[in-house]
Amino acid sequence: MYLEFLLVVADYFSTLNKRIAIYEWGIPILLGIASGVLSFINNDNVLYIIIQGSVPIIATLLGFTLAALTLFLTGNSKIEEAKSYITEKKISGKPISLYRLIVVSYSYLILVETILCISFYVASLFPFVSNQYICSIANSVFIIIMFNTFFSTIRSITDLYFIITKKDKE
């Protein structure tokens, strides 16, 4: 089976520091657990309704992320500057360039957004699963990964913005 996509995930996690990990994973985990517990206590399917409404947003975000990465890789006159600008982030113990950081960040986002869209449609093929525990856990995991995607997108865009504008001001 094709598992090379796991290298993208490993590179993404290599670029995280503690502060970013708390922002991109800690907050989504808290939101996912809280929403799962509230859904379970109230004995309703509000999480599914939220997920159902968020899938078009994730699909739109996937298109935006693909377009942003494509425009950056093909139409940006600052690619050479990005390749030569070394960040404090490291992969395999080696500092990486801004170019590689952007490619890793956007590749991770594309991968996760695609998995979220596919998982929603695959899960809708199994409507017979009615165990409340399984549904609450699966929906909570989806919520966690969804918020991780949103927060990762915000961080990737702001990192790119501040690094490029800082570079322009020098």
Ends apart, CA distance between termini: 47 Å
Order of helical and strand elements: HHHHEEHH
β-strand percent reads 5-15%
Rg computed from alpha carbons, rounded to a whole number of angstroms: 18 Å
Uncertain runs are none
**Range of helix content:** over 70%
Number of domains: 1
Structural class: mainly alpha
The order of strands across the largest sheet is: 1-2
Largest sheet: 2 strands, antiparallel
Mean pLDDT: 84
Shape call: elongated
Count of runs of 4 or more consecutive helical residues:
6
How many beta strands in the DSSP annotation?
A: 2
Please describe what this structure looks like.
The protein is mostly helical. 79% of the residues lie in helices and 6% in strands. It contains 6 helices and 2 strands. It has a two-stranded antiparallel ribbon with strand order 1-2. The model has no long low-confidence stretch (mean pLDDT 84).
Describe, in short, the structure shown.
Helix content is 79%, strand content 6%. The protein is mainly α. Strands 1-2 form a two-stranded antiparallel sheet.
Detail the topology: elements first, then pairings:
Layout: H1 5-14, H2 18-42, H3 46-75, H4 79-84, E1 86-91, E2 94-97, H5 98-123, H6 132-169
Antiparallel strand pairs: 1-2
Helix pairs in contact: 1-5, 2-6, 3-5, 3-6, 5-6
